[in-house]
Amino acid sequence: MEDLTDLYERLYFHEIDAREQLNSRLQLPLSLIVVLAGAFAYLLQTADHALTSFAAYLFRTSLILMGASFLVGTYSFVRAAWGHNYKFIPYAQQIAAIVEQLKEYDVKYATTVADKLTAEYLRGYLIEGATNNASNNDRRSAYLHWSNMGVVATSAFALLAFLAFVLGDLSRAQSVMHVSLTQPVDIRGISIPNKLFVVREEDTVPTKQ
């Protein structure tokens, strides 16, 4: 029986370690999702969607597939990161309180069930926690796998869309604003025409010293 308790304990702590490893593995797809979201927004905003060339059709198809795979990857990432309740053994203070109550029971009724009931109490938490946490880790691992597949597919379609965007010259034409001065500029009440006058030196009036 003690061997089984040791087994349940190892399984319990193994699933706790697996939980921490899954949390660490979520950092990479999160970074890639943020980058791909920016790339998708850039392509969607700067491309001229009115063009009808082969490159334009290829670009739009790649962009649609990129968006679909991005949604799959993001949804799977969210499911892998949130919505999973793990079970843990009670705090040490709670366990100590249970043990003390069982010892008092032994003293009061002249029994020797404290050690046995304490072991069963802890073993029950280990079994329940190991089973529940293993189920959570399996689901999270599956969702993380699909999230990675979605990120890979999104990256591939993004590369194809960028190639079509650049080679097909699909950027939206930028309008250029021309500014011309047609009216005189009034500076502190002085009207300055838009013509240049040259005053000859002999026409100037010398000032008195």
Task: Describe the secondary structure blueprint for this structure.
Layout: H1 2-25, H2 27-46, H3 54-81, H4 92-109, H5 114-167, E1 185-187, E2 190-192
Antiparallel strand pairs: 1-2
Helix pairs in contact: 1-5, 2-3, 2-5, 3-5, 4-5
Q: How is this structure best summarized?
A:
It contains five helices and two strands, in the order αααααββ.
Characterize the structure shown.
By secondary structure, this protein is an all-alpha fold. It has one domain (2-167). It is 69% helix and 3% strand. It is built from 5 helices and 2 strands. It has helices at residues 2-25, 27-46, 54-81, 92-109, 114-167, and strands spanning 185-187, 190-192. It has a two-stranded antiparallel ribbon with strand order 1-2. Strand 1 and strand 2 (190-192) form a beta hairpin. Helix 2 (27-46) runs parallel beside helix 5 (114-167), helix 3 (54-81) runs antiparallel to helix 5 (114-167) and helix 4 runs antiparallel to helix 5 (114-167). The chain is rod-shaped and about 90 Å long. The protein starts with a helix and ends in a 17-residue tail after the last strand. The mean pLDDT is 87.
